[in-house]
Design a protein that fits this description.
alpha+beta; 7 helices; 4-stranded antiparallel beta sheet
Length: 302
Amino acid sequence: MNSKYVKDLILLLAIIVFCALAARHLAGHETLEDYANSHLSVESQENITASATFDSNLEQSSSVASSENTSGASISASELSTETVNSSVMSNSNLPDDSDVYDTRVTFEEGFYYEEIPDSIVSKITDVSYPHDCKIPLTELRYCVISYVNFDGEEKTGEMICNKVIADDVMEIFHELYENDYQIESIKLIDEFNADDEASMEANNTSCFNYRPIAKGHKLSKHSQGLAIDLNPLYNPQVKYKNGTTTIAPVTGKDYTDRSASFPYKIDKDDLAYKLFREHGFTWGGNWNSSKDYQHFEKKIR
């Protein structure tokens, strides 16, 4: 090859190398791949941004779903436990779920039903409100679930045991009270108070069945048959007059013995509860002569 051409070729190659090095230096040592990645089209950038956003949202959704599933599992576990009485209407988490009596359940309305006494409740009341010498067969009693509005205006779920003869009355009366926002402070089984009637009354607890004699007597109370209901007893105490002595039950209800006074939760003949119980054939202790039992409604059966 002619030496002149060789020199020209070498010079050309040198110029090419020099230009390449100069271009890389001016580009900040950026390779073609680097350049391509840093100069994406607008469409490509939008696609990548959208993809990143989607992945982020998907991750957040998965996190929320996981949280909700965990929360749901917690709620389910709570619902299977045995409270409340009295948590929002209606939180039913404390109610028994015994399947042995479910086929005996009679549902009146949502939040209102009765059934034969569930095994868990039998265990709870045995040797408390239901002693071993109780003359009333369990088959004569019914376990009632009742929705009500408490003194704070909150919806709650209560429990009551009554005679099967008045179970329908209980459903109808307390449903009507609930529909009219009639306030009741508490509806719990008296076993929550160790079957102590005085303690239940002092807590202003509304209750029905309790196998016991009439206070300071030997004759069985109508409560022993599940045929009597004491409603908001603290504000509607029993007042007995005997031999010049006045006995008040509960004793903490003394401030509410003056029935001419005006105060909340007082049961009189203008009261909705009075009217409903009377319509269903109950007698009211406030109409008695020998004593006045303003909390007490009972029904006689043949």
